[in-house]
From TrEMBL:
SUPFAM superfamilies: Amidase signature (AS) enzymes (SSF75304). It comes from Pontibacterium sinense. This is Amidase. GO terms for molecular function: catalytic activity. The lineage of its organism: Bacteria, Pseudomonadati, Pseudomonadota, Gammaproteobacteria, Oceanospirillales. Residues 2-389 form the Amidase domain. It comes from the Bacteria.
Amino acid sequence: MEQLLTRVAARDEQVLAWSWLDPAQAQARARQAAEEIRQGVRHSPLQGIPVAVKDLIDTEGMLTTYGSPIYKDHHPTSDAAIVTALKKAGAYVMGKTVSTEFACFTAGPTMNPHNPEYSPGGSSSGSAAAVADGQVPFAIGTQTAGSVIRPAAFNGVVGLKPSYGVLPTAGTFPLCPTLDTLGTFSRTVGDQRLILTALAPHLPIANAVKNPKILVCKTPFWSQGDDEMLTEFDQFVADCQQAGADLEHYEMGPDFAALLTAQQQIMGVEASRALSTHYDQQCDQLSAPLVALIEQGMQVNNADEAAAHNLKARCAHKLQQLFRDADFIITPATAGTAPKRVDGTGDPLFNRIWTLLGLPAITFPIAEGENGLPLGIQLIAPLGEDHALIDFADKLQTLTRA
């Protein structure tokens, strides 16, 4: 903890990853954890490990603002379920990391640790940046569109968006209950095994898939990726094939393209409900982009919302059939490297449909762009196959490093 706080003191004026951090409290928690270990207490492999928690997640005794000035003095009186799970596993919360406003698209102060002129992504900006900068080993974030995978890729760390519902969301601000998913950040793929096993002990640990079949899925949005990302993606696929991977190219049909609009409609209408009181009573304290999102959501009628959910169900069924003969899907994680901060937090274009379908996804860096920023790959597995996904990502990353 002393080393981490030294790193924070040296770097966080440049990165601004933390929304709340009390060094004295962090040291006290570290001393308590160390004493438990000396006494032989071992709850899980996370015993004594500090974890950063996104500012969207209630944490007793710590300022939790949801990224909004409306909650600038909000101190929860109880922990969110994921914080309780962390403590039960023997980990402790080091502090709170910056979230965009209500986990939407209006950026907070966090900068990309690779270059402060660039965005760390969103909405889990601080969580990804703090891990990338070596200020904390693990962090918790959330994803409703692309808020774990995108910032993980932009910051060059490993990000896991588990299957929908694997990690408990009670006590996390409910922006969009049918999509909101807690996710985790780490510096290695293998570290994801530790944190998922500790936080989701109910999730079956399946044996690693032998000789998995991989579907190379450029998605209907392939043409919107930049040349650098598309070139590195193709090179990564070629590296996988040369390493002996069983690959098959898969072209998604028009229904999957329509999932993009479906995700945007569902997110918009549920966000408009979640934020309706703030819109009615405190609209002057909401950013213009968030007001626009709320108002767009208000325009989605019941028939369109039902149609979006029906399309989601049809596509989920198609993928279920597809996964009978295949094990994993590989796609780009983002359209390119991180944008300049003045241009926003980046487009979750390559993440939205997988979040909508609830499938587990993981990203890790595969290359460096000409601007010196990371580029990440995205792997997707069938629902509930989170551990198999981590094992596969770990193997694939090792194979392609050579």
